[in-house]
């Protein structure tokens, strides 16, 4: 009896992968954000001189920014749900990290709620005089959320490194005690630790780049719009990598 070798499923081409990516909400939002950031870079570099062309790129940037607001209109529900879970102690984090995560998700939720209050003004349906003050306060909460996210990621890296070091010493002691064992089960702790550290480093890069956007908007940082556009490209590409892989599954 012959056993047929398992045939591996062929990998879809790049165009098909892109179609899978843009069919997801996260993928479509990242695509719009990437185009928006490129539009901002084009405007700042004045690659296509001319008032008409510049106005077209500015319209593209503003319309894409408005479109992306609809993708996150109800995202505050997930944020406050995260806070509810953290208050219930279901995450199993330490006291410090629990407080950081509660503050992070609470500030992000407040940012989204305040931003949603100005959606009718952005659409031109119901202009209000308090649009700018509310947006300023919203971006302050976004800044606090990103800052706490970076702080939590840095703390997580330090905690992961220390815990992995202690786990290595413990595993070495167990190996010495189990010399008579015929086979040793593969240790997945190291791979899990590396994956966790890689995710935390991505979070630092993404949230660190995005931190400049609210910082400039509220006047706490003096950075050119060109730098903002470049950092938006970096954060979008880095964060979009996981969404790309997930969309292919």
TrEMBL record:
One of its GO terms (biological process) is peroxisome fission. Keywords: Membrane, Peroxisome, Peroxisome biogenesis, Transmembrane, Transmembrane helix. It is found in: Peroxisome membrane. It comes from the Eukaryota. One of its GO terms (cellular component) is peroxisomal membrane. Residues 171-182 have a biased composition (Basic and acidic residues). Residues 184-194 have a biased composition (Polar residues). The chain crosses the membrane at residues 73-96, 108-129, 141-159. InterPro entries: PEX11 (IPR008733). Residues 163-194 are annotated as: Disordered. PANTHER family: MICROBODY (PEROXISOME) PROLIFERATION PROTEIN PEROXIN 11B (EUROFUNG), PEROXISOMAL BIOGENESIS FACTOR 11. This is Peroxin PEX11-1. It comes from Aspergillus bombycis.
């Amino acid at each position: 009896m012959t056993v047929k070798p398992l045939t591996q499923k062929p990998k879809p081409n790049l165009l098909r992968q892109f179609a899978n990516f843009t069919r997801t909400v996260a993928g479509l939002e990242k695509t719009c954000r990437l185009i928006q950031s490129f539009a901002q870079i084009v405007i700042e570099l004045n690659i296509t001189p001319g008032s008409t062309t510049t106005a077209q790129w500015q319209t593209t940037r503003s319309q894409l920014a408005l479109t992306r607001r609809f993708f996150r209109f109800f995202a505050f529900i997930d944020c406050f749900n995260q806070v509810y879970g953290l208050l219930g102690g279901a995450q199993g984090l330490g006291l410090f990290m629990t407080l950081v995560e509660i503050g992070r998700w609470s500030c992000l939720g407040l940012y989204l709620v305040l931003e949603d209050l100005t959606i009718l003004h952005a659409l031109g349906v119901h202009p209000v005089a308090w649009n700018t003050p509310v947006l300023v306060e919203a971006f302050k909460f976004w800044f606090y959320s990103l800052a706490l996210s970076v702080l939590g990621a840095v703390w997580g890296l330090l905690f992961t490194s220390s815990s992995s070091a202690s786990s290595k010493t413990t595993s070495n002691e167990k190996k010495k005690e189990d010399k008579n064992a015929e086979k040793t089960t593969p240790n997945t702790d190291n791979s899990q630790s590396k994956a966790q550290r890689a995710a935390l480093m991505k979070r630092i890069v993404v949230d660190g780049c995005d931190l400049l956007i609210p910082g400039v908007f509220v006047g706490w940082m003096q950075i050119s719009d060109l730098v903002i556009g470049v950092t938006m490209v970096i954060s979008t590409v880095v964060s979009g990598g996981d969404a790309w892989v997930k969309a292919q599954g």
